[in-house]
Amino acid sequence: MKLRFLSGNEACAEGAILAKCRFFAGYPITPSTEIAERLALRLPQVGGKFIQMEDELASLAACIGASWAGAKAMTATSGPGFSLMQENIGYAVMTETPVVIVNVQRGGPSTGQATRMAQGDVMQARYGSHGDYNLIVLAPFSAQESLDLTIRAFNLAEEYRTPVILLSDAVVGHIREKVIIPEKPKIINRKKTKKGTKFFGLNAAMPKFGTGSFVHVTGSTHQEDGMRRASVADVQKRMVEHFVTKIENNKEKILEWGENYTDDAKILLVSFGCSARACLEAVKKARENNIRLGLFRAITLWPSPEKRLSELSEKVEKIILVQHSLIGYKPEVERIVGRKLLLLPKLGGKLHTSNEILRFVKEVR
User: Fold this and answer.
1) What pLDDT digit, counting tens, does each position of 181-190 carry?
2) Which of 76, 73, 78 lies closest to 62 in space, CA to CA?
3) Given pLDDT bands bounded at 50, 70 and 90, which one contains residue 213?
4) pLDDT value at position 54?
5) Which end of the chain is more exposed for a tag (fewer CB within 10 A), N or C?
6) Is the peptide bond before 31 cis (omega within 30 degrees of 0)?
7) What would the pLDDT profile of 115-133 be if each residue is shown by its tens digit?
8) Tell me: the pLDDT tens digits for 73-88?
């Protein structure tokens, strides 16, 4: 175990190295660029490859190709770059390609506030591509979690053969904190294929290009052996059900969240990412003022930790969603709690302060 003083973006890059990521393709865009910068330095040191591509579409396409060539692969982007990646996220879902995509959120739409933070990409991360599918989306709130969740993102990508999104933000990406570097983190490596086994579907191993397996990889509807059957209704049904259920049926193993002072809370703050940092401080100040305030922090945004959040919602009098977006996580939290939600958004690239949150709590309690 080593201690380092790293930004969230630097910690993300170090987490990728620990997870055995050996390929990065990306296009520099604020506020994610430090991830590419650090991996441009670090990957050659461990025998990996770094490529700066011409745009974000090509970046994720290159990562998908590298993954099929046997490398653990990652890209990182922000704002409109994440929008450009959506088609290839769908392609990675369709081809069951393990790949990690980091989106360091900034203000939008379009070019928006290139250097300022926001949290408006929650729904896009889950629903940005077309068709029926499930995704795994993780949201760190510290530099340490940027490292830890990057490792977990690679493990989940390998376990479920799916793209996994690390939904960071400009504050978490740029904040510099003490980070513990584990010596031997748990790493899930790729399953080896055996002759005669299927290439797609439940528990299928992924062959490595150039090692003798004959496999057809296509974005069209295909059977478990990879062969295109776009006009066969049962094949489409079976394939899409697999994309949805392989995440849904295993969500109890995937889910992760944090709680503070929820046992006796009368008012519950719900938050994620950088917003949760001010919330935690606000909760501590509230307790000093004998206000029974608690915090629920979503770490896996998708799938949603809905069972626990629903349980907590039945115990508290009010729920306040704190985020840097007018929409963000709001539709999903409203669906889960099934009642009126108080929203404390903040726009313009400015951070909530704990005093602002506490003042709002006092006004509504």
Assistant:
1) 999 999 999 8
2) 73
3) confident
4) 97
5) N
6) yes
7) 999 999 999 999 999 999 9
8) 999 999 999 999 999 9
Tokens of 29: 């865009």
Separation of first and last alpha carbons in the chain: 45
Of the pLDDT bands very low, low, confident and very high (cuts 50, 70, 90), residue 202 is confident
Which residues are CB-neighbours of 269 under 8 A, at least 6 positions away? 279, 282, 283, 293, 294, 295, 296, 320, 321, 322, 357, 361
Contact 107/113 with Cβ under 8 angstroms? yes
Cα distances (angstroms) measured from residue 108 to each of 80, 82, 115, 121, 332: 8, 11, 11, 9, 20
Tokens standing for 316? 């508290």
Under 8 Å between Cβ of 292 and 303:
no
- Which residues pair with residue 258 across a beta bridge? 297
Residue 3: both structure tokens together = 């201690």
- For the chain, state the CA radius of gyration: 21
Give the per-residue pLDDT at 192. 79
pLDDT at 211: 85
Q: Which residues, at least 6 apart from 331, have a Cβ–Cβ distance to it below 8 Å?
A: 123
